[in-house]
Amino acid sequence: MASLGRQVNTTALSAATCATERATVAPGSRPAAAQTSRVATEDLPDLTRRELEILQLVAEGHSNTQLAKMLWVTEQTVKFHLSNIYRKLDVPNRTAASAKANSLGLLERVDGDGTVPSTWTGAAG
Q1: Is 14 a domain residue?
Q2: Domain, as residue range, for 62
Q3: Which residues contact 52 (CB under 8 A, 6 or more apart)?
Q4: How far does CA 15 lie from the centroid of its chain?
Q5: Around Cβ 117, how many Cβ atoms within 10 Å?
Q6: Angle at the Cα of 91 (from 123 to 62), degrees rounded to 5?
Q7: Is the CA virtual torsion 41, 47, 49, 53 positive or negative?
Q8: pLDDT one-digit tens code per residue, 60-119
Q9: Is 99 a member of any domain?
Q10: 75-89 helix and 49-59 helix, angle to the nearest 10 degrees
Q11: Which residues neighbour 102 within 8 Å (Cβ) at sequence distance 6 or greater?
């Protein structure tokens, strides 16, 4: 292996790397990778995982009957969850709920399989 002619001081390199990271992220803010949502987590409604799952499916255009079959619950249970979603989002119907969820970035927080990513703690089980 060829030598570079001088040795790298790993302590200095580590300190320089940390200093660069501190310089690129303002105090009190999060790194760019963590700033993927449009709204701070504290400002999001406290929706359960199931409510987020139903909200995602509603936004995809599924009916209450379809939701009940897909989720192995009764249609009444779907209506119960939707009622909670409407109340928490302060909206009158599924169309408004979908629009508000989209504007808050909630739909982006649900994985393609309808589950909430484990890295997001904004939802209560």
Answers
A1: no
A2: 48-109
A3: 106, 109, 110, 116, 123
A4: 33
A5: 11
A6: 75
A7: negative
A8: 999 999 999 999 999 999 999 999 999 999 999 999 999 999 999 998 655 556 555 554
A9: yes
A10: 90
A11: 59
